[in-house]
Amino acid sequence: MMDRTVKALAVLMCLLLSMAISPQAYAGSPQEITVTLEVIYEDGDKSVEEIVEHVEAMEDFWAKYHAWQLVNMSQEEVVFRLRAEEVSPLNVLSGYSKVSP
Q1: Span of the secretion signal (predicted)?
Q2: Alpha-carbon torsion 18, 65, 80, 31, what sign?
């Protein structure tokens, strides 16, 4: 029950922040937002990808990244993080694999 309440509050907070950040996104004009995606792998490696999103509706934007954890947000940039339960691609290429206990 508590987990569901926390998720609902997080979604509500994101929606309220998105309205405060970009009222023009609700007026129909697309807004440009830089999105940084951080993936933290089990072995501690981190990959970072930066993309530019052209957002017409903030609801669609938040729905697209619903599985990601919001780390930081400003008017121009949003940073999301995801913890992957796998070894990083670089270590896989080096011959390492996940070892189960």
Answers
A1: 1-27
A2: negative
